[in-house]
Amino acid sequence: MTATALTRKPARRGRIALHLGCLAALLVMLYPLAWLLATSLKPADEVIASLDLLPGRLEWSNYTTALDGVNEVSIWRLLGNSLLIAGGAVLGNVVSCSLAAYAFARLRFRFRGPLFAFMIATIMLPHHAVLIPQYIIFNQLGLVNTYWPLILPKFLATEAFFVFLIVQFMRGLPRELEEAARIDGCGPFRSFFQVVLPLTRPALITTAIFTFIWTWNDFFTQLIYLFDPDRFTLTLALRSFVDASSTSAFGPMFALSVIALLPIVLFFLAFQRFLVEGMAGSGLKG
């Protein structure tokens, strides 16, 4: 046996061990999803009593009950409410955070450094610390039990994480492009919209993806501001399912959880190509 063959054997074993390890990690990560899908098809008596992954009997009526809605509100109304809030949050974050990031990354103004440091410091501020002051403000404005408290702050660049993300991306763009646009007569706004913004597409898509997922899964903030069942989202409807029927509604609750996951999965699949492009590319392609 040659030395080359002896060298290939440990390398092949190492690759096999790596693939097996990745497969085991994948199974561990996918098990909660498989458990959710299986539990959504279990009868009510098996959800709590049985530890088996696969249901003893398929209970398709769980999905029928989930599709009927909660508290006399149809699932399509709940889905529309969730899409309205998530879509408004995505639009607000993309517009406001990109404008704020452009100011910090490309413009020169007084106290730019301290203001940027102050903005970064707000990332460490817990959301619950500002929740009560925000609630008092929106209550005095008469906006409680509306969608405005969930959408309006997104248009004010309150998400410092996304501002920082876009700032770091914009700092990597060549300034020569803006200087050439300025020679052609472009002002700051025109340079932003026609030169910088198209090149920042990967960072904007990353912001849109994470904003959509975080807003869609948000429960606490929506629970604070929304009281009317007609304005509930799918996330709040899951809680209402338990309140309305107690333990007998666990099957439909898990079925509604599966339905609530579908828009997130479809949204991610639709934009994952751009997300990967943003991770791998420099933002100057196309």
UniProtKB/TrEMBL annotation:
CDD domains: TM_PBP2. Keywords: Cell membrane, Membrane, Transmembrane, Transmembrane helix, Transport. Residues 79-271 form the ABC transmembrane type-1 domain. This is Carbohydrate ABC transporter permease. PANTHER family: ABC TRANSPORTER PERMEASE PROTEIN MG189-RELATED-RELATED (PTHR43744), ABC TRANSPORTER PERMEASE PROTEIN YESQ-RELATED (PTHR43744:SF6). It comes from the Bacteria. It is a multi-pass membrane protein. Belongs to the binding-protein-dependent transport system permease family. InterPro entries: MetI-like. Pfam families: BPD_transp_1. The chain crosses the membrane at residues 16-38, 83-104, 116-138, 150-170, 191-216, 249-271. Its main location: membrane. It is found in: Cell membrane.
